[in-house]
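Support reply, case 0932

Customer input (verbatim):
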Amino acid sequence: MKEILKVNNLIKKFPKAGGEIDDADAISVLKGINFDVEQGEYVGIMGKSGCGKTTCGRTVIGLYDKTDGTVLYKGKDVHAMKGNERKAFTKEVQMIFQDPYASLDPRLKVNQIVGEGMRIHKMYSSNAEIQDRVFELLDQVGLNREHASRYVHEFSGGQRQRIGIARALALDPEFILCDEPISALDVSIQAQVVNLLKRLQQQMGLSYLFITHDLSMVRQISNRIAVMYLGSLVEIADSEDIYIKNRHPYTKALLSAIPIADPTIERERKRILLQGDVPSPVNLPQGCNFCNRCPYATQLCKERKPQLREIEPGHFTACHRAEEM
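Our regenerated output:
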């Protein structure tokens, strides 16, 4: 498959209050992120809240400025784009936000929300054509044309997220960043939205970067999964390999927390309980960020930061002892 997105050594820092981004005590949120997304691929990034997943996604598509590193979309530097090139990029790359209550303008009707991007990019020559396209999109996401004349406060959470998906699809994008699009929804609605995203991917050949902390859901939808801890990717592999042949101690602990529906298996299985607290991002350990909580840590782990390396074809792990796991 053709590579559509390439992230290389991406670093993002935020200044402390009253400080500057290049200050020595600026908070480093992303610490050398490396991954790629191929055309038509569904890549998931999972990790606990606060690990940097959303910052990673927003920096990748240029909503946040990078501090260092490169992000290439179809071979072009995202953060160097200007003018018409930047406008073309914002048409091809769209985002589905986490909160369907906060990401839609309450002053606008649905047809205005979904049609706004089409008007900005002048995709159609008349309002009637835009209106017809809005009706098509609403039908595509499981709504109907009567909804077009309503305001967003008249909809449920699941319906609002469908409006957000319709808005993202309105510009015929090739790549969509999904920032925890189901976390604010009821469990009964989550499966509907995920199935909708999968169906749209098959119909339109979309590429997704799916950010989530839902460990069981990301397995069902992603071709590959990247696990993040304290601003670093600690493991990347095919979704089945992550769950069956994982090599990083943090991945093992994370997956052991997923409940199993069978009560017999659930009672007998051993859950990995991590000791200690998550380090402060202001004062990280000298070596591996996970070393103070890892039951397998050695002196080498405390002294030298492990690099993300390929231990099997397509399976990357940042652990000195990955071969022993």
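We compared this against your earlier run and they match. Two observations from our side: The longest strand covers residues 3-14. The CA atoms of residues 225 and 242 lie 7 Å apart. Please reopen the case if you see a mismatch on your end.
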